[in-house]
Design goal:
The protein has about 190 residues and is α+β, with helices and mostly antiparallel strands. The chain has 2 domains: about 30 residues; about 160 residues, no CATH class. It is about 15% helix and about 35% strand. The protein contains 2 helices and 10 strands, in the order H-E-E-E-H-E-E-E-E-E-E-E. The longest helix has 28 residues. About 10% of the residues have low confidence. It comes from Bacillus thuringiensis.
């Protein structure tokens, strides 16, 4: 009897594990949602053998994601908006959304990485607004090799940053636009 209970428990556990793995695979192959970047910042001034000891990862209330447009699986419909600069209204986009500030070290490296299975963006359109009212915009290519985000210097103590990730096909037609917002405070 005891042996049957253990066997049944083992079969039930394996069934649950198989169900979980299957549902995870279905979720990861779902192309209806744009890939979500992982934003992190590394303190490059500290002497350490590994960057992990000096890394801050923007998660939970430290980042806000807004999927503007995504046609990752059906590439017949393309984004019609402008792609020359980041024209997002940061204040309006973050209205009623909590966003905590992460550290901006004096000597830092900020990067945005995506899952290895995810489609990678082609461009990043950035916009920075500091607490003194200064605004900067920039455009850069996205390279998965280093995934570095080059944010401009700013005069204030804190800044809100909007990173607009752009996915382009081989014909330069846009099939994906995602805004990610972070806030940083100088250390």
């Amino acid at each position: 009897m005891k042996k049957n209970i253990i066997s049944f428990s083992l079969i039930l556990l394996l069934s649950l594990l198989l169900l979980t793995i299957t549902s995870c695979n279905k979720f990861s192959s779902d192309n209806s949602q744009a890939p979500e970047p992982s934003i992190d910042i590394v303190d490059m001034s500290k002497e350490s053998k590994t960057e992990v000891n000096n890394m801050f990862v923007f998660i939970d209330n430290y980042t806000v994601l807004n999927q503007i447009f995504w046609r990752g699986s059906e590439k017949e419909d393309f984004y019609k908006g402008q792609l020359k600069e980041n024209d997002v209204n940061i204040a309006k986009s973050l209205e009623n959304k909590p966003l905590k500030s992460g550290p901006l070290f004096e000597n830092y490296k900020m990067s945005a990485t995506f899952s290895s299975k995810a489609l990678k963006p082609t461009l990043v359109l950035g916009k920075l607004e500091d607490d003194l009212g200064h605004t900067s915009t920039w455009k850069q290519s996205y390279t998965a090799k280093d995934a570095v985000i080059n944010i401009p210097r700013f005069e204030g103590e804190t800044a809100k940053i909007a990173l607009r990730f752009i996915w382009l096909d081989d014909n330069e037609r846009c099939y994906g636009v995602v805004d990610t917002f972070v806030s940083v405070k100088k250390q």
